[in-house]
Amino acid sequence: MKMKTALCLAAALPLIVIGPMTAAQAETKPAATAAAPGAMPGDKAMTCEMIASERTGINDAVLATAAKKEKSAKVRKSIFGIAKGMATVMLPGAALLGGGSPLGSLAMQGASQGAANALAQGGNGAAKPAAAPEPTEEQAARLQRLDSIGAYRQCQA
Predict the structure, then answer these.
(1) Which end of the chain is more exposed for a tag (fewer CB within 10 A), N or C?
(2) Whole-angstrom Cα distance, residue 73 to residue 79?
(3) Residue 41 pLDDT > 60, yes or no?
(4) Calpha distance 12→27 (Å, rounded)
(5) What is the spatial distance between Cα 90 and Cα 79, in angstroms, rounded to a whole number?
């Protein structure tokens, strides 16, 4: 009998310690999600200069992110070029070693030729034009909010 009581208390203890959600806690969650996208405290007091300054800051952040992505793409492309050069030099030599048998040599030569072709075709695509940098969803929502505040205040663009 004592074992059953202990099990019941052990099961009920987390419910007692954590407790149910109060009405005040339940009311705060919908209020937080009801705010307009991109809205921040102090939006109503923003001047045209403050709006322009914040827009410039967001645009600079978007451009900096795009520059980082472009730099990492260049690094990946250069690494791909090195790997392509190594495969072009190494794979034909490996085909000659081929394991001693004529069939093994032929199989190795076919595999190396296929790999060399795949590497050669993979990096020779035409250079893609640089796409315009895109802001994140949060940045886009904030920019829209700043646009609407600027339109309301009749700020110059």
Answers:
(1) N
(2) 10
(3) yes
(4) 26
(5) 16
* 142 burial type by CB count under 10 A (0-12 exposed, 13-18 middle, 19+ buried): buried
* Residue count (the chain): 157
CA-to-CA dists, residue 135 to 40, 56, 62, 84, 99, angstroms: 18, 13, 6, 34, 55
**145 HSE (CA, 13 A, CB side):** 19
Which is nearest to 80 in space by CA: 128, 125, 123?
123
**In this structure, what is the dihedral angle of CA atoms 105, 106, 109, 110, given to the nearest 10 degrees?**
-150
Query: How far is C-alpha 40 from the geometric centre of its chain's CA atoms?
Result: 24
pLDDT greater than 70 at residue 98: no
Q: Which residue has the tokens 């690094």?
A: 75
| CA–CA separation, 150 and 146 (whole Å) | 6
The segment with the largest mean pLDDT, out of 49-58, 65-74, 117-126, is: 49-58
> pTM above the 0.85 mark?
no
Half-sphere exposure of 15 (CA within 13 A, CB side): 5
Q: Give CA angle at 20 (18, 21), nearest 5°.
A: 110
